[in-house]
Specification:
By secondary structure, the protein is an all-alpha fold. It has a single domain, classed as MetI-like fold (Orthogonal Bundle), CATH 1.10.3720.10. The protein has eleven helices and no strands. α1 packs parallel to α5, α2 crosses α5 and α8 runs antiparallel to α11. The longest helix has 33 residues. It starts with a helix and ends with a helix.
Length: 223
């Protein structure tokens, strides 16, 4: 077992933060694309985006292993050791939390009046500037909610992480993996209880913070 619970918590927070940041980098343009564009096969794309929510996490982890493992289609080409590293744990957590990010932000973007965007465009603003200065600020409640939901989901990720990143003490053993490892022995029950309490506190704090910040942002953007 990991000797220092604080090290486990810090590792879990780092993995969840990187996972959320990575999910946002891909999720923001994806959410805008799904909210503002109609195209053939859109239903298929929506299904693929939501797939990590309905697939067993172990299946998601195995797919990541096939893609980004040392002998995976992408991992071997890149030559980067992503599997069984903390970066791999962040990738697994980010993929599982990605649908939550996209769903919340897409709803926020859809709530923005397209006519307002069109008016700004007629004044000479580029599409990127319109998005950054008009759409994204008005959709900020959705972005915050999606980010914190993704963060909380990343903190609780287990199946995809253990399949793709393993359960390496000090490297990929996050809170959930540490709890599972501690429960494998009778002597670890006390440590498991402490880690469960920390995990619940972090999850509740993330959700509560999301609600608070989301409401304040919503109050600012509403007329």
């Amino acid at each position: 077992m990991e000797p220092d619970p604080l090290a486990i918590v810090l590792l879990s927070l780092r993995v969840a933060a990187v996972a959320t940041f990575g999910a946002a980098l891909v999720g923001v343009p994806t959410a805008w694309w799904l909210a503002r564009r109609d195209f053939p096969g859109k239903v298929v794309v929506e299904a693929l985006v939501a797939l990590p929510l309905v697939l067993p996490p172990v299946v998601t982890g195995y797919a990541l292993l096939l893609l980004f493992g040392r002998r995976g289609l992408i991992g071997e080409a890149l030559g980067l050791p992503l599997s069984f590293t903390w970066v791999g744990a962040a990738i697994a957590a980010g993929v599982v939390g990605f649908p939550l990010m996209v769903r919340a932000l897409r709803q926020g973007i859809e709530a923005v009046d397209p006519g307002l965007e069109a008016a700004v465009r007629t004044l000479g603003a580029s599409p990127m500037r319109t998005f950054l200065e008009v759409t994204l600020p008005l959709a900020a409640p959705g972005l915050v909610t999606g980010s914190l939901l993704c963060f909380a989901r990343a903190l609780g990720e287990f199946g995809a992480t253990i399949t793709f990143a393993g359960n390496v003490p000090g490297e990929t053993r996050t809170l959930t993996l540490a709890i599972w490892s501690a429960l494998q022995t009778t002597a670890g029950e006390d440590q498991a209880a402490v880690l469960v309490g920390v995990s619940v506190a972090l999850a509740v704090g993330a959700v509560a913070l999301g609600e608070l910040v989301g409401r304040r942002l919503q109050a600012r953007v509403e007329p």
